[in-house]
Amino acid sequence: MTPVIQRRVQLGLLVVGLTITAMAFSLIVGCFKDDAAIESSKATVMAEVVSVDPLHAAVAFQTPDGSFHSPRFGLLYPTELSEGQRISVEYAAYNPDLARPTGRTAMLAIIPGLSVAFAGWAVVGLLMVVVAEFGRRSRGAESAAQDGDDAPAGDGENVPAAAGGDAPAIDGESTGPAGAESGEESLSSR
């Protein structure tokens, strides 16, 4: 992987991380905005929980003017509810579709929002490390291949010794100025 491609991939991952963070903070801000709307014209009634799943709770209630309402997107903060349960619900009088169980606020959205941002950055960080390691290894393999192409044809053993130094010994004999004496001793000892 070239450094340019690696940088572009890492910038793309950075954009993904920033987008996840923006979405998480939008979730938290949206919950506070909905709570402010409910607080501005709060009305409280008893409601019956019609259906429940892990992320949604549908309720039905009657407003003081006699009309029945079932918020089309369910309740805000729907945890720990069971079907058939009767609960107190706060809603915005001008918009009965905006409802929450009494006593629950946007503070319940902070931990999930921050954990989404944290998990997103953990995944992005891990992917950035993987991309950096892959780029480092591929550049290392490329430079090793280039070093192999630039090396001399021989394996380095047949390179002559420096001038005035000892030449490598052949069959126990050495040549050169210091090798002449040792070569004679070698012959005489045989």
From TrEMBL:
Query: What is this protein's name?
Result: DUF3592 domain-containing protein
Provide the transmembrane region boundaries.
Answer: 12-32, 106-131
Extract the ranges annotated as region (Disordered): 141-190
Residue spans of biased composition, Low complexity class: 153-190
Recite the UniProt keywords alphabetically: Membrane, Transmembrane, Transmembrane helix
